[in-house]
Please model this.
Amino acid sequence: MADPKRYDVIIVGGGIIGSSVAYHLTRDRNETNVAVVERDPAYEKASTTLSMVNFRIQFSLKENVLISQYTSELFDRFEEIMQVRDTRPNISLAREGNLFLINEAGRPAAEASMKQQQELSCDVEWLNPDAIKAKYPLYDADQYPGGTFSPQDGHFDAYAVLMAYRAKAISQGAVYIADEVTGLKKNDGRVTGVELASGGVLEAENVVNCAGAWASEVAKTAGVSIPVIPTKRQIFVLDTAVKPAGPLPLTILPSGLYFRTETGGLILLGKSMDEDPVGFDFTWDRDRFMDLLWPELAEFVPAFDTAKLMRGWAGLYAVNELDGNALLGEWPELKGFYLANGFSGHGLQQAPAVGRYISELILGKAHALDLSVFNPVRVLENRPLSEDGLV
Ligand SMILES: Cc1cc2nc3c(=O)[nH]c(=O)nc-3n(C[C@H](O)[C@H](O)[C@H](O)COP(=O)(O)OP(=O)(O)OC[C@H]3O[C@@H](n4cnc5c(N)ncnc54)[C@H](O)[C@@H]3O)c2cc1C
Model:
């Protein structure tokens, strides 16, 4: 029997990213000994279970588009691939589209992004206000010159995808340990394992930081400073008096307000704001919806003027303050310490490609998709990677 204190790879955090890494490592080299340490096995505070679960090909950085394209293709086969014995996951895939409303100021950048997405064979088109109203009659689209629409995008059940990765990883030999990593251990410039809250130590030559919004806390214990900050984001659930005739796509206004239909005839909405507090705060705020979001929503969808706020919740974005993009790869100053952090609000849709990439890095395999632009060395060089690919 393998030594329960010694692994090839220890993954800190078993959310969707950590579980995807565990799945890929044990799939790509079955004899790899992988432990995933997760302190909240019910995932009550994990971003994975508190999100909006949207996936979209509408990014401007080419690699982000390719990552989502892979996810979108994979999701059609995901349930079959992830079957464990007789149990097949149900990820409730809903390709209801993403519609970005664009104002004049944003039009050149939106058109350039759309062109690149089309060159990459993505299904995305420009809709003028009449075309938007024809599809979604409740929208007052005349306020904008148009929008970019990607009909194959949509949402899914993130908990089901997380559980599928977890179950499949376990079936391939990964071990999940319900405990908290309180410190990383290192020696001579190389990571050697982790200390646990329960008092024990686990040894490994490779440790992957998949701690989501807590990533900086974990890194700090090895003297590694990464620009990832936990930032509160809120989602509200609305029951409107007028129901749309069919599903609404995730609709994003130039201000950042976003909403879509949810099962049960409900509307989900949210908006990231500069004043969103940094820290581990999970309280949600009814006044924000009443004072700020609802008036804005009702201006674009006048029929939603009459509605009942059903509930809300708060979760954390792991915001990469350097550039809002993921940090993927080995930390240059600590051998064997890998980061899969800083997803800044789009980590769910990146989990499949990220898990595969980190696994390839650790196992020394060729990359199916080169994600080296996300190398964390750019933190040390203070070289932001912006969404439009310009440095
Ligand atoms: C409101 C909201 C809306 C979002 N909408 C979208 C969206 O539409 N599309 C999208 O792609 N993404 C979205 N996101 C972002 C997405 O949820 C995250 O990027 C993604 O879930 C990150 O997964 P993760 O596994 O890195 O983090 P998490 O799911 O947070 O998992 C990290 C895990 O690490 C564990 N952990 C932390 N520290 C330790 C430790 N020391 N020891 C042991 N365990 C530890 C935690 O308990 C946690 O379970 C949204 C996020 C929020 C909050």
The chain has nine helices and 18 strands. Residues 12-13, 15-18, 37-40, 43, 46-48, 50-54, 180-181, 210-214, 218, 233, 235, 315-317, 343, 345-349 surround flavin-adenine dinucleotide (CB under 6 Å). The mean pLDDT is 96. The radius of gyration is 21 Å.
